[in-house]
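Supplementary Note 3. Input sequence used for the single-chain structure prediction.
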Amino acid sequence: MRTWFWTIVVVAAAVALALVLRDHSGNVVIVAQPWRIELSLTLAVLLLIASFAILYFLLRVFSWVGDRPERFRSWRSRRSVRRDQESLESGWINVLEGRYVNADKDFSRVVNRTRSEKRKVLASLASADANHHLGEYGQRDQALEAARQAAGDDLRLREAWAIVAAEMYLDQNRPQDALALLQPLQDASSRYLHATRLLLRAHRQLRNYDRVYDLTRLLLRRGVIEKSEALQLIEMSAAARLHTAGAKGFKAIWGDLRSEERSLPDIALAAAGIQTAEGNHDEASRILEAAISVQPDSRLLSAYSQCPPQHVSRRLSKAEDWLKRHPDNPALLAAMGNLCLTGQLWGPGERYLKRSMALRNDMRIHALLGNLYDSLGRPEDAMKHWRLAAGVVGVLPVLSRSRHLPAADMTRDPTLIDVVMAEDSPAIDEALEVPLAASAADYVVEDMAGTAQGKPAAAPPANEVKSPGSDQGGLDEYFDSAPIPGVDMSQTSDGPRRER
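The predicted structure, written as discrete structure tokens, is reproduced below.
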């Protein structure tokens, strides 16, 4: 549209100029001694216009020829940028597809030929990530060092390098190296939320639970971390802080916790354990009761059932209130049964434990019932439940009480002479069963050889000692005929003596 518009304007200007010049038939005289040039006005105007057009064209040609090197450099730069972008795109596609070897080749190509420091840093960091996934930590560290040198004094590039390197160090379980890179970023500004998350990982690996607690709260306030994940970290770190501080630092740490945090199972167990160790059973009861009211965890109920006899009635009354809301909770029933055993309330204790056992066949329930029946003087019932407790554990099978261990199968023992010869000569008398052992020192091997050749066996010496009420076959069952390891039988009194 613009082309048509300017065409119409030029044509209109030409027509107007022709009309004007037709009405003015003047002449133009150019005097330059010794020349005198006289032209009509129309021709003079046309010559001026043509001269301007020719001059403009010549100037444009000269300008184009002069700018040709710069244009060539610009074209080469655009081509280089396009190739770098294509290699970076291909490399990241390979990373997302898990083809880390191909990705490393693409990124290395960019690093070697690019002229841009930013693209070199990005390609080096991407190459380090690919080598990190491949487990090539040496090449990864070389790529990280190349990225650090290419970043120079550029603040943003150095921060990007620090975060990428710290994340890789954390994956490699090197929290100290990651902490050295992340701490300056977090000290400079708390807006580096990703760096703060990595810093939280580093302190978790270092077990710095104070910092874990503070950073988790910070991330929770910023909405960067899910509340469920934050509560798990707070529960773990606060419980560890309570265990470390003990009774001396309990008040400061406990006062810093919120009400919903105090009811978390691990925190409540740690706090109740400290109070119980100090003899403050009432305070321990209040801590556990507040947590159980929120969540009747089995660990909390088990800890609540551990108390001196004088506190049984109060805790049992509180547990009965919970039972109205949770009538089918086996852990609550087991805890009430344990409280009854502590207070020697045998009837209610048996009733609660049997109700719990009907809901869940638990090793602890059988053990408690065994203790209850043992206290009541019913050893058969106690032994039965103790055996069932062992069966639930799965360590030992429940065996009958009258079973004995079977005798060892010695028919394949190569040191038994009677067995070997029985396989070679079927005509051997089956009644002859003399083991090769220390108890058969007076036995002569030549007699056995004679028997194998069809000769009658020699009678045993008169002075041979036999155990009363046992025969020779019984010895085979209870005595091992294998030689004693590490003992030279030729040097004993039972073996043959060497000739000097």
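Residues 68-97 form the longest helix (30 residues). Strands lie at 27-32, 35-40.
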